[in-house]
Amino acid sequence: MHPLGKHLAQAGYSVLGIRLFGHATQPNDMIRARWQDWFASVEDGWHLLKCTCDQVFLLGLSMGGVLSLAFASQFPVSGLVIMATPHHMPKDPRLAFIKIISLFMPYIHKGKDIWMDQEAYQQRVCYPVDPTRAYAELQSLLTFMQAGLPRISCPTMLIYSKDDPVIRKEDNHLETIFAQIGSQVKQTLWIENSGHVITRDLQRHVVFEACTQFIEKVLN
Q1: Who contacts 7 (Cβ-Cβ below 8 Å, separation ≥6)?
Q2: Contact at 8 Å (CB) between 85 and 177?
Q3: Which of 10, 115, 171, 204 is least surrounded, with the fewest CB atoms within 10 Å of its CB?
Q4: What residue ranges do the domains of the chain occupy?
Q5: Looking at the predicted structure, is the pLDDT value of residue 195 above 90?
Q6: Res. 137 pLDDT band, cuts 50 70 90
Q7: Does 3-219 carry CATH code 3.40.190.10?
Q8: What pTM was computed for the model?
């Protein structure tokens, strides 16, 4: 179980960690994945939880946060916690041609990750390459998410790291999402000394506690 999920389970909550289509198998599977497949994975998980729980919260990191926002614009959820979540893609002229590029260059080698907790970094599990087609699907997913932000009405918490090299503070992802969501109850938290994967890096316990307190506050 993911450390955040384990923390929430120990606090007494029912937890479901969703494995998105094309993830945790092999990179070839990601090539044939479309953003609608990822969205359907979230919908499946939501239905499973709705069968046993009165209220469902979505917590998502990075693209998981994008999916959580997109889903909350279409389905009723009790609350959202999005972490290290992009609002938009970086400015890169290659993105306009990424589907064509993916036909000739199916994979891009990952760069070096920046982690503050080296012990946690050694324990990470991920694909050794990024499927190029996935960038095109993420771009389409972001467009869908952006259009739905004003329709989100549930309480929402946004958690980001000032030291994230992927979702950089200067690119104003947090501020833009915060301004565009329709939620009346929304709050933010900036942490430091963590890279992009804030649920596993050095300040993960700060993130865990913030998530727990937010859920408790909404429920009470």
Answers
A1: 208, 211, 212
A2: yes
A3: 10
A4: 3-219
A5: yes
A6: very high
A7: no
A8: 0.95
